[in-house]
Amino acid sequence: MNKPRFTLRKARHICLQRHIDELFKSDSHASVSFPLRGVWRLRHNDTSTLPYRVMFVAPKRKLRHAVDRNRAKRLMREAFRLNQQRLALPPQTTLHFALLWVAPVTLPYPKVEKAVLSLIQKVNKQLAENR
After folding, report:
1. Is 5 exposed, middle or buried (0-12, 13-18, 19+ CB in 10 A)?
2. pLDDT digits (tens, 9 = 90+) for 74-89
3. End-to-end CA distance of the chain
4. What is residue 2's predicted lDDT score, i.e. its pLDDT?
5. How deeply is 65 buried, as exposed, middle or buried, from its count of CB atoms within 10 A (0-12, 13-18, 19+)?
6. What's the whole-model pTM score?
7. How far is CA 83 from CA 2, 28, 64, 130, in A?
8. How far is Cα 97 from Cα 78, in angstroms, rounded to an integer?
9. Which of residues 67 and 50 earns the better pLDDT score?
């Protein structure tokens, strides 16, 4: 029996500075679910074949040590990777989604996963309202 593969390849990451700048403009949507803050923007009629792109941010202001920042990003990536299929996206659009760490310390994985699920639900709710 084939198991579904939950991967999060490099092509799914937001890398272009232009896309990052667009994501953090004032008309983007944002929500906080401690210890994370989610920022998202829906791009209509995008030529990209990918339904969504994502980025993970752990600022030095919140987590001073590199090991803590790397752990926080690893936790966010893993939680998103395992729950990415829950995103309900309309066709012909691309969702740009950023997860930002807001807690002053790293937290256990179950709390991070709960926050990621909450943010995904908020994104889905906002997308459903805009249809």
Report:
1. exposed
2. 999 999 999 999 998 8
3. 37
4. 63
5. exposed
6. 0.91
7. 18, 22, 28, 22
8. 15
9. 67
